[in-house]
Fold this protein.
Amino acid sequence: MRRLRRWIRATRFAARQNQGVATDAPRFNFYPMRPEPNASIAYVVGRLGARVGFDPSAAGLTIAWDTGTWFSAAAARSLPDSALNARCLDISKATVDRIWSEVSGYSIAVDPLTTEGPIVVKPDENGTRGGRVAEGPILRRVPGMVYQRLVDTRVGDRVLQIRPVILRGRIILVYERWRPYPQWFKGPELTVPRTTANFFSDDEAALLLLFADAIGLDYGELDVVRDGEAGLIYVVDANRTPVRPKGLPDESVEAAFRPQAEAFAALISR
């Protein structure tokens, strides 16, 4: 029923978007799933006056769209070579950390059976709630969970997470996301759009883009944390179907989505 409700919301969004839009307007095709109206890309197509379609073989820009962790090989074969995220087949937490380790030279993963002190325990699957902090070492591993060291990102009485928005080898903007300490994984949020230079050096930005290319993420968002003591950054999550961030004030919507719309406009005009 949840999947059906999502399909209905997405289909209604596409119908509303296409109503009154010129038939020769730029076209965004999504496959195999359809974006819901809270998807970030929905705000982009609205600003561009673009049409929404679901045929990957049609003219226009195609985006591989699946909210799951793994993108099926069969669906990938139906996509044109130019489709965004056509290579992004696995965004599980374990794969994210493995690829981050390969490009950066260091990992956030720990052995929970031997690591002492606080560790993060969370589902390997993308978009699944259940993250928590446990005191290591623990007695046994749980299938389907990953284990990472807890990176202390506190600034005063708040917890900071950084989320760069990626499009075809560029960081378009960065979301500064805050939660009250000690709510590491849930709770009220405040999200503020910022520039790349507010958070990353040129070398760090290049490293993030290298990771995005390695995992096949042409469009999407990364969850990044910085170790306040060592200064190192870690990519802990990759999202190829981002939604409007929680805690984004209405007065910040334009600052968040105008740069994204401009970047997509430049992409489809090539």
User: Anything to note?
Assistant: The helical segments are 2-18, 40-48, 73-77, 93-104, 202-215, 253-268. The chain has a mean pLDDT of 94. The chain is about 25% helix and 25% strand.
